[in-house]
Amino acid sequence: MDAEIYADESSQNGHHFMVLSAILVRKNDRFSIETEFEQARGNNGLHPTNGEMKWTKISPAKIAAYEAIVDKFFELMASDHLRFHSIVIDSRRLNHAQYNGSDPDVGYSKMLYQLLMSIVRKTTSKDGSPIQYYVHLDDRTTKQTPDDLRVVVNNGLQYRWGIAGGPVRRVTFADSKKTTLLQVNDIILGAIAFHKNGRDSKEGVSPAKLAIARRICGHLGCDRLGLDTPPNRRFNVWCMRLR
Fold it and tell me: d(Cα 119, Cα 138) in Å, to the nearest integer?
């Protein structure tokens, strides 16, 4: 089976907690899944030609479309057509000077490495049938190439868990403005960071963002986002304990 991973981060700079997350879909399902999301937004007044969906663009005028996207996300997750994985990092415990050559970009790449390692380990077939992963990262300025990350992840998978054969076949940058699944990931990711960093209790908070975060909680049966979830196949949040 071939799988596609769409990954990004939120609150990398100037926040207590940084969150990275990814949506995982079967490669053969990707087009139909993107079509369902595009229909959900279009049917609720936000046609794809109206621009990129993202957490920071949620507003009262667009809330029906974002509610439809959240509902579609959990509908597809319930039918096992997509999975969601995220990691939460306490930014105050990141020591870039000691561990990353004083370069936060190196630290960010290490967190991406941890996210991808976790996804592959949790989704590798128990019966030994091979899964090949194609990773799409939201485009960013960095000195490191996506292929550097591919090599390091494959080496780590073999060294730590004996997952051989280089299952991560390709890592590329993608333009989120043209990539629906990166946009959907940004909405769920943004809601997690919103709660985890306590922005929902700030003065002047957006009522539309409060409503979307509550809707996600309603689907999950929880009061707040960003806490560790029990190990499961479909929706995972891992709060990393940095030494």
Answer: 17
C-alpha gyration radius of the chain: 17
Tokens of 192: 């997690």
Of 34, 36, 13, 15, whose CA–CA distance to 25 is shortest?
34
With tokens 């306490």, the residue in question is 90
Give the chain's mean pLDDT. 87
Report pLDDT digits (tens) over 118-137. 899 888 766 666 789 999 99
- Amino acid in the structure at residue 37: F
Give this prediction's pTM: 0.91
Closest CA to 173 of 130, 138, 132: 138
The tokens for 56 are 């920071």
Task: Measure the CA–CA gap between 121 and 125, rounded to whole angstroms.
Answer: 9
Give me the sheet containing 235-239, strands edge to edge: 168-174, 132-138, 2-10, 17-26, 83-90, 235-239
Give the three-class secondary structure for 20: strand
- Whether the per-residue pLDDT at 4 is higher than 60: the answer is yes
Q: Please tell me the number of Cα atoms within 13 Å of 116 on its side-chain side.
A: 34
Which residue is listed with tokens 């992840």? Answer: 153
d(CA 198, CA 11): 12
Query: What pLDDT, on a 0 to 100 scale, did the predictor assign at position 124?
Result: 78
